Amino acid sequence: MAAITPPPSRIYLLRHAEAAWATPGQRDFDRPLNAKGYADAELIADKAADKGYRPDLLLSSTAARCRDTADAVHRAMGSTLELRFVDELYNASPDIYLEIIDAQEALGSVMLVGHNPTMEQTLEALIGHEALHQALPTGFPTAGLAVLDYDSELTGWQLVDFVID
């Protein structure tokens, strides 16, 4: 498991919602959400808000599909939620995701909106291989939100909820 210790004491990992296929000549980076993806992004954002999940900071990849997903979260959780777009979250390794989380030392909670397989690998680094496969036997779905809390008595990060649309 990763050696990130609080703060933050809560981490939210949100995989972007379903993206459209690239049109001829379109870069992967520029693919927006498809119609299902837009609906799923709104649903997952509303479900998270209804459960009282609200990070102190929302960090999103600058890729179009992540921006679209993050915008839905921002709308659902209110305009006072600080939203930042981070270029390094696109095509990043799990180590980069973990470094970005670890750098948020002045915050109680942080949400990352990013990509697979990095999102799943980051979750695995935090909770371990067995816990990941017990919780997500078929992998990290699009518009899936992992909620992790740090438990010093259990010596690490625990997946406390996984929200899907």
Automatic annotation (TrEMBL):
SMART domains: PGAM. Pfam families: His_Phos_1 (PF00300). InterPro entries: His_Pase_superF_clade-1, His_PPase_superfam. This is Phosphohistidine phosphatase. It comes from Rhizobium altiplani. The lineage of its organism: Bacteria, Pseudomonadati, Pseudomonadota, Alphaproteobacteria, Hyphomicrobiales.
